Amino acid sequence: MDCTILEYDIEIKPIKLIKGQGLAKLMVESKCRALDINFIAAIDDQEEMTAPQISEAFIDSPWYVDIIFILLNLQAPPSLSRTKSSFLKMKATRYCILDNVLFWKYHGGILLNCLLKDEADKVMQEFHARDCGGHLYWKTTTDKILRAGFYWPTLFADV
User: Fold this and answer.
1) Most buried among 2, 31, 52, 122, by the most CB within 10 A?
2) What pLDDT, on the 0 to 100 scale, is given for residue 9?
């Protein structure tokens, strides 16, 4: 068997990364992807994008207020520290707004409906008390809630 190697004009330059520079590049790339994924909008006749609308209940919720701010403005609230804002930006990539409702992206691209505090309490009680519920291991109950299509930020701690 005869193997031949084709010549390519490739130049490899090692890059020295300064602390945080690599993360900055990732953030820029994720913002570009976030425009396609998280900034779901309608394109009108003039080819302009309009900002998505979200239900007032989500805006008033302390669980989601900062995440919604990032999704709508593509930047963290100015009142946050630099560390908290970068953490929150990474966390917000898991969320998207669709038809005035906030969704959390689960593994494999499955969208789970984000619940508010009172809705989360009802769902937790239903999964604990109904026929298929009971005093199960917390991971089992959590998996059942996720498979049913629900999510809230304190799900794992609450269950």
Assistant:
1) 52
2) 61
Question: Phi and psi (nearest 5°) for 17?
Answer: -90, 130
Low-confidence ranges of the chain (pLDDT < 70): 1-52, 130-136
Asked if residue 70 lies in contact with residue 89, where contact means CB atoms within 8 angstroms, the answer is yes
Indicate whether this model's pTM tops 0.70: no
Find the domain containing 126 and state its range: 115-159
C-alpha 46: how far from its chain's center?
29
Decide: 20 and 27 in contact? Cβ < 8 Å.
no
Backbone angles phi, psi at 98, to 5 degrees: -145, 125
Residue 18, SS3? Answer: coil
Q: Do 60 and 138 fall into the same domain?
A: no
